[in-house]
Records
---
Amino acid sequence: MQRDNALALEPQPEDWSAIFGADDIAPSRLGDAVIERLTQAILDGRLKPGDALPSEGRIAARFGISKPIAREALRELAAMGVIQVQQGKTSRVRAIDSGPLARFYRFAIGNTRQGMLDAVELRRMIEPQIARVAAGRRTPADIVALQAVLTRMKASLGQIPAWMEADLAFHNHLAVMTHNSLIMLQSKALEPVVGQMMVRFNARTEREMPDWEATFLRHAKVADAVIAGDATAAETAMRQHFEAAEAAIAEIYGANPASDRDHREDNHVQA
């Protein structure tokens, strides 16, 4: 009876061809071809977040493939974060979020020294530009939220867990202020890695209050420039923020061999 109810609830459009196209899939790489058809339907808007997918059996019948191949294709899409698959329930299209990219960054960076140095370098490359764009696109609501984050940061001086939460919120909100969905996704995806950096950064020594206050003032300088709409000053302030942390980063991770190499090559070219 339960099985019959599930079948009754399963969406049954008259012709899945309107969504998935022709059924002329070549026999090689069948799973990849099914994934391509499904993702294209999502990208084209024929399938939207929350929409149900046909069952494994219907997908198999539709494309003339085996159920195990259909099942594996759905699993790969689920691993990519494109669809949600639950045992005994209809698979549905998911709204895109940062989860899959966050997992990628965690595996790519790992716990290695070089991985963390690469992550620091990545942040130094993109965050000044994020500050610049945020300054040019800020809205009144964005400004109010940014000021609230600064208030949280000031109230949490010297309190490592609270400070880290507010610090992450500051950088994430600047990404939100760009109103660029890809920048927002990347910022959220990097959050676990950035959090790991912050743990190391804040635990390296016993920090005195003047050090905490100097760090806060660097964030405030970025915020002031963003609020004022001064894109150049916002970018410069963010660069200075990272430069000020250079000594601590070197203390934690050491010098970045890649950066040293590039620096030597630049000097050689200039000479």
---
Amino acid sequence: MAMVLLGSLIFQQIVWGKTVVVKNNVEEQELIKPAEEIIISPTDYIPVLLYHHFAIRDMGQGNDVVTTQAELEEQIRYLKDQGYQFISLESLKQLLWRVEKEKVPYKEMGKDEMCLGLNNKYICITMDDGYVSNYDLAFPIFKEYRVPVSIFAVTDSITEQTGLKKFTWEQAKKMVDSKWVKIYNHTANHVPVDMETEAEFLAEAEKGELALQMYLHQDSCKALAFPNGRFTLSCQEKLKEMGFDLLFTTEQRVITKGTSPYEIPRINVESGWSGQDLLKKIELVARKSFGP
């Protein structure tokens, strides 16, 4: 099997205190003969999708942070037609906790032992940063199709309305009150852990959590998405001690039986993708996740 790497970043990992930067925007094109293509059942893994910003006009192929409203609607409709069940982070937490009790050490697993063996084809939708387009363009789609979604918000950017326009706390409350949206922690300042001290990062995570509690009063699990996907193992452990149930990265993989609730990968959705394109991407990432 020939592998063509179209672009990757080199990362370091596995040492306490060292920055762990997961693979972001890594694309692998597999040159596989159809007879050799690995088929993995979609009930054996859970994809978590990552969106950022939405727009009306066509952004063209390959923009990794902007999806059009029409593309989003077509993707949701297509995945539903293919039998996928969209689940909330609360449901995901329960599934992962159940799996955690049953799993064996990851390095001893063969392909079969990595399979979740679920009864349904589950999928999660997340959005990062808290752009106003999440409210104006995406929220109506999620309500119409009755899809639970999760937004990781940069809380200071909402309060102070800095950078590209974010939704307001009032708009956030409307989304939460709809019961189709939950809003979670992307820290208060969106500064990656390797660009400030660990103590500063943890303080910003706590500040973000307090803002969410103050403005939204949600009854939900406690989740955080690492800014730019970067974290340290020491920081990861301290966030667990702070009571976080789920921690999310930007690594392009799917959830398998070997996935930690504190290192959940996500698939970044790019502009120009149809629902069929998105499903092909999910299947490609799944093969990579179950590969060597």
